[in-house]
Amino acid sequence: MPTLSKRVQDTFASPFRKFLPLARATKKRGIEVIHLNIGQPDFAMPTDLLNNLWDDSKPNFVPYGVAEGEDELRKAWTAYYSKFNVDLRFKDLIVTTGASEAILFALLGIADAGDEIIVPEPFYANYNGFAQMAGVNIVSLFSSIEDGFPIPKIEDFERTIGPRTRGILLSNPNNPSGKVYDEDTLIALAALAKQYNLYLLVDEAYSEFVYEGFSFYSAMQLSGADDHVIVIDSISKRFNACGTRVGALISRNHQLLENITRYARLRLSPPMLGQAFSIKALQLPSEYHDRLRTDFSNRRSRLLERLDQMEDVLYHAPEGAFYLFVQLPIDDSDRFCAWLLTDFEYEGRTVMLAPGTGFYSTPGKGKDEVRIAYILDVDHLNNAMDCLEAALKVYPGLKKPVASVV
Amino acid sequence: MPTLSKRVQDTFASPFRKFLPLARATKKRGIEVIHLNIGQPDFAMPTDLLNNLWDDSKPNFVPYGVAEGEDELRKAWTAYYSKFNVDLRFKDLIVTTGASEAILFALLGIADAGDEIIVPEPFYANYNGFAQMAGVNIVSLFSSIEDGFPIPKIEDFERTIGPRTRGILLSNPNNPSGKVYDEDTLIALAALAKQYNLYLLVDEAYSEFVYEGFSFYSAMQLSGADDHVIVIDSISKRFNACGTRVGALISRNHQLLENITRYARLRLSPPMLGQAFSIKALQLPSEYHDRLRTDFSNRRSRLLERLDQMEDVLYHAPEGAFYLFVQLPIDDSDRFCAWLLTDFEYEGRTVMLAPGTGFYSTPGKGKDEVRIAYILDVDHLNNAMDCLEAALKVYPGLKKPVASVV
Questions:
Q1: What CATH architecture applies to the domain A60-281?
Q2: Nearest Cβ partner for B253 among A1, A193, A272
Q3: Which ipTM value was assigned to this complex?
Q4: Domain B6-44+287-405 has CATH 3.80.10.10
Q5: Are the Cβ atoms of A199 and B2 closer than 8 angstroms?
């Protein structure tokens, strides 16, 4: 048979999904799999958002839309940003097919093959894959779970800048660490980007989900760095509509957006049905997110309580988003996550988690870490934690306490 | 400001869309623009396909789907192929975000940066852009409008194969030439692909639209070349649902599909609302397409009648699809198409066309050709042809007949 490309064979395997074939086999054996591997919450959305999605005001077929996204959606989305004290204009935002496409378009638009972007580690695993697709090298800035995932110092960012560095990419709140960047850090990063003539790309998919004691500061609030700042946004997590595939690329650098629109024109338009939904969702009253935040906060509390009862488990309480990155007494998180699906059950159930290795580009990091998405109700979370607790007693690759090794 | 990547600045500008800003300005001046620039037909779809799209059988939110597409859609789509005498299995088809994504994934999966694919010319213009995104070089095989766009001879394909050739890409029926590949040609191309260990990629987005006297032969009907054949398909044109953004990548080479699924997993899932629509659409009775074919055939006849009445206009009657690629007595199709929008009107109207240059990769080709999409009803087509006829009398860049130059 003809050969495959080298790049497809080298392509990063998504830690959220690479074990799905195993999970399917587990379910076939009659075992319930509790999916905490992916950020897909179970909250119902206001039902009328999905009724009459393609109403009589629309044509009686589904045409291509505008490459940059429908005018009405761009208006609704930029208006929505006023809740973050951001004054956006229509032209500052182009609609993409999920944040995924926004990330790919941004990388292609700011960097050529062989160029570099700096990304604080751990980071959203699929950045690895999109960087590979674009031929861009990720230069990671490591921070450790033992230290509570501190945001790297500005001097550390600066030290990492090289002749091929094109930008700094981060997610705020951070997936998977749950860290939230404060205003001062973002201002300092914008100053650094200006000094070295770099882009500052901030993925704000989780900006609605910041817990008590912390506050969200959008990179679009930064002043004096309009040419440098790019924000990536998404309808998915914000409105529990991951499957609509609607995201956005936001910048006041219109020359950049106009150039990136060439890529948007190639794929003709973002999904029209998802856009019709998004226009309605972005006009929901802010109480909608107040309620979601309360629910997530309760789930988070319960999860932390359960983990506190387990031995040799280390975490940093999330400040935002809905993930917990946790260190476990295990030899290999890939092996552990697979084993949970292939060789383990507790009362007819098991739990699917995302192995930590995928969230680093530094080889060997994350081997004893997993990501838990607290996206299900407290009952499901409890069942999942029962599984985890039991698994950590019988998993064959458990790290022995140092004393017993001697 | 920070620089843009070289590649985004070099990115191919879509001939279907690059003049849209001009068209917007035209409309602002109160002039009606008849859009024959893009393959977006005006046929109503059965209305119940769009009602109750997200019914009670589904969760009360819109979750991520399966990266390879929803099981139900894959089943409906493979079953639909029986109408082309193709026996497909569930695993032979993965769902993509439009055919656009299928093309990009296929190129990334079979070719590394710097590799080549052979494409008969003229071809679907956006192949140029997707090849650029993937860093793959298009080696084109020219055929001329004067000769009626003959499909290149097998010897010509063979002569073009070099050490970096990874595949042959064609669309059948061809957009923009309207040529239909016959069974013998496809069998010969598959044999060539086997002999040189190449992929044969066939874009069959228009397979429902083949006119009297011609018949469609799907590359999935080819036997003995399962590892080599890749078909690209789309819901868009087939069901007048371009905006749903649902396409497919089809192959019996499962190793290839499994590898490409890594790209699919990165972007998580195809649009779920569009997939819900597609499941219903693929189960429409075949009378639906019989009627569409009749309507397109009538539009085609009227368009050809009108062109026959104009001087110095050359075309080859389309055998399939719904485009007419036509040679006009003009100096420069880009200039002409822009001029139609900026400096021309006839009875308060003008027509937007796609300049021919974008459908070639050979520089200088297509300069006196335009693509006309006959996707509107006969009244609109007549109005558009009134405009074209009038324009060809007053356009400042008209080619003078040789006699008058002397």
A1: 3-Layer(aba) Sandwich (3.40)
A2: A1
A3: 0.94
A4: no
A5: yes
Q: Which of B4, B45, B272 sits opposite A244 (nearest CB)?
A: B272
pTM of the predicted model, to two decimals?
0.95
| Tens digit of each residue's pLDDT (9 = 90 or more) over B305-338 | 999 999 999 999 999 999 999 999 999 999 999 9
| Residue A405 clears pLDDT 50, i.e. is over it | no
Q: Which two tokens stand for residue B201?
A: 């990629």
Interface mutation vs chain B, best among A24, A97, A228, A267, most B CBs within 10 Å: A267
Please indicate whether, in this complex, the C-beta atoms of A62 and B244 are within 8 angstroms of each other: yes
Chain A residues 111-130 within an 8 A CB cutoff of chain B = 111-113, 115, 126, 129-130
| Tens-digit pLDDT profile for residues A160-170 | 999 999 999 99
> From B59, which residue of chain A is nearest by alpha-carbon distance?
A44
Domain definitions of chain A by residue range: 6-44+287-396, 60-281
* Best CA proximity match to B253, nearest among A1, A6, A8, A9: A1
pLDDT band at A402 (very low <50, low <70, confident <90, very high): low
Mean per-residue pLDDT, B84-89: 96
Across the interface, whether the CB atoms of A5 and B240 are under 8 A apart is answered no
**What integer best gives the mean pLDDT of chain A?**
95
Select A6-44+287-396's CATH number: 3.40.640.10, 3.90.1150.10, 3.90.25.10, 3.40.50.1010.
Answer: 3.90.1150.10
Question: Which residues in chain A (19-48) have CB-CB distances under 8 A to chain B?
Answer: 20, 38, 40-45, 47
Note whether B13 contacts A130, CB cutoff 8 Å.
no
**Inter-chain contact B5–A266, Cβ cutoff 8 Å?**
no
Question: B47-281 — its CATH code?
Answer: 3.40.640.10
